[in-house]
Amino acid sequence: MSTKIKIPTPLRRHTNGLSTIEIAANENVRDTLCTLTAQYPTIGERLFDSRGQVKSHINIFLNNEDIRFLNGLETNVQDGDTVALLPALAGG
Predict the structure, then answer these.
(1) CA angle (19 as vertex; 14, 25 as ends), nearest 5
(2) What would you measure as the largest C-alpha separation in the chain, in angstroms?
(3) Which domains does the chain have, with CATH numbers?
């Protein structure tokens, strides 16, 4: 049982260049991200603020659904699901 986590290019330096990380399936998105940060500690400071909340410029999708419209970090994760991390981009 596993979950895939898609890592965007700007965050890959924290995952040894990997674009996809496969981890053991967890109960919810929060646990999945905690497992990711246990394996790659420096990515945690890019994802979470000092209160343990996802930083406002990081969007998280579970199987192409924005978790903000599901159950947030408590959204259940099942075997075979894909979590995608997408930092918001700004420009002009």
Answers:
(1) 90
(2) 43
(3) 2-87 (3.10.20.30)
**Entry field: residues in the chain:** 92
> Mean pLDDT, consecutive 10-residue segments, the chain of 92 residues?
92 96 90 94 92 90 94 93 88 58
DSSP assignment of 32-78, as one string?
HHHHHHHHSHHHHHHHB-TTSPBPTTEEEEETTEEGGGTTGGG-B--
C-alpha distances (whole Å) from 16 to each of 23, 43, 47, 50 are 15, 11, 16, 24
Structure tokens that stand for 71 in this block = 């159950």
* pTM flag (> 0.90): no
Q: CA dist 78 to 20, 56, 90, Å?
A: 17, 25, 32
Distance CA 90, CA 83 (A): 22
